[in-house]
Description:
Elements: E1 25-28, H1 32-40, E2 54-58, H2 61-65, E3 75-78, H3 79-82, E4 87-93, E5 112-119, H4 134-151, E6 157-164, H5 171-174, H6 176-189, E7 192-199, H7 207-216, E8 220-223, H8 247-259, H9 263-272, H10 276-307, H11 313-330
Parallel strand pairs: 1-7, 1-8, 2-3, 2-4, 4-7
Antiparallel strand pairs: 5-6
Amino acid sequence: xxxxxxxxxxxxxxxxxxxxxxxxxxxxxxxxxxxxxxxxxxxxxxxxxxxxxxxxxxxxxxxxxxxxxxxxxxxxxxxxxxxxxxxxxxxxxxxxxxxxxxxxxxxxxxxxxxxxxxxxxxxxxxxxxxxxxxxxxxxxxxxxxxxxxxxxxxxxxxxxxxxxxxxxxxxxxxxxxxxxxxxxxxxxxxxxxxxxxxxxxxxxxxxxxxxxxxxxxxxxxxxxxxxxxxxxxxxxxxxxxxxxxxxxxxxxxxxxxxxxxxxxxxxxxxxxxxxxxxxxxxxxxxxxxxxxxxxxxxxxxxxxxxxxxxxxxxxxxxxxxxxxxxxxxxx
Length: 331
C-alpha cells in the first residue's frame, strides 16, 4: 500500500513483536478435498473439530454461503466482520480466487527490494496528525535522523528492506480496486495471534503476491503432499488448537459478536454453547434488521415513484409494485 497508494493510509513506525511464531502457511496445489483430508488428519471423524478461537475468514457473505460443508462447522466471518477481532488460528479461504482485482495483482511484481542501513531512531515525542501523512512522515524521519547524526558522535544503525516500484501514472486510475483489496488483505492476515493458513481454489490471482511473500521470506509454502511432514499439519488441523473450547468460551465469543451486531455468527456461537434463548434472540435481531432494511428500500422506491417527475407512469407503477412486495417481505 505504501508503494502504490501512499496517500491512502497513515504512515507509522514499523512494529515488531518481542515474540516469535510460525510463519503463515500458504497451501499450493490443494483442492477442497485435499484441504478436508489434511484437516481431519488421523481422526476417525469426517469433520474436523474447531474451537471458538479458530476462524475461517472469507471476503464476503456470498463466499460464506459457498463454503464446503466441513468448513461450515467452524466460526466463519467476512473480512469486515473480523476487523478488530483476534483469533488463535485463521484460515483465509479463497480470498484471491474471488478477488475483483483479477489479474491486476500482477502489479505486485513491479516491487523490487534492496537491503540498506539507516540510523536507528528512538522516538520519544508524539507525532502530530499532519505528520502521519506519508509525505510529512518521511520528511519528519529524515529530519530526525539528520539531527541524531549531528548531535551524536556514534550512532546506532539498523538494517531494513527498502521497497522500490516503477513509476506508473496509471496506477491510481487503473488499479484503484487493488488499493481496497490490499487493505482487506492486511486486515485478514493480521487477525491470527498464532497461525494463519491461506487456501485458494484458483491460485492464479495470488501468484504475484505469494512470490512477493516468498521473496520477503515471510511465508511457509506447503506443496501438496508436504503437509504429511509439516510439524503443524501432519496430525490434522486439531493440532492447531491448544484445547477444545468450552461452552463458556463459545458464549463469550457469541456475546462479543452480538455486540458488534453480527447476529448470525453470534447465533452459531450460542448454538455451540447450548444457549438456545440467546440463539433465538440473535435470530430475532437478524430478522428485525432485515425487515428494517426492506422497509427502507421500499420507502425509497415509493419516494422515487412519487417525486421523480422524469419517470413515466408505467415506471412509477412498477416501483410502487416493487415497494409493496418489499413491504410484504418485511412483514
